[in-house]
Amino acid sequence: xxxxxxxxxxxxxxxxxxxxxxxxxxxxxxxxxxxxxxxxxxxxxxxxxxxxxxxxxxxxxxxxxxxxxxxxxxxxxxxxxxxxxxxxxxxxxxxxxxxxxxxxxxxxxxxxxxxxxxxxxxxxxxxxxx
Length: 130
What we know:
By secondary structure, this protein is of the alpha+beta class. The protein is built from three helices and four strands. It has helices at about 20-25, 35-45, 50-55; strands spanning about 75-85, 90-100, 105-115, 120-130.
């Protein structure tokens, strides 16, 4: 009997291996800014610091990224509200990510900016919404 595919944490409804998995493993880059944003959300759920740093544009990338805060966030959902291509190599993605920290619901609502260089999309920065 075939084992069912693990759903992707990004909430796309696709299997991890057909969605964010190939980007996180380095098998192939995310094809769009939205796909990169989804893969970065998935990387947060998996505590994949290396992927988060590698997919962050060098001009704004932090030296280090600590994902060991206590209590650990439990990521529980992602809603992509808009994907706006601005040019062939620039785009914005508005999203709402939900998590629980110490049992308390939290949300991150951001419009993120992305740039494509050398065939790879990179997260540049973002504006938080209230």
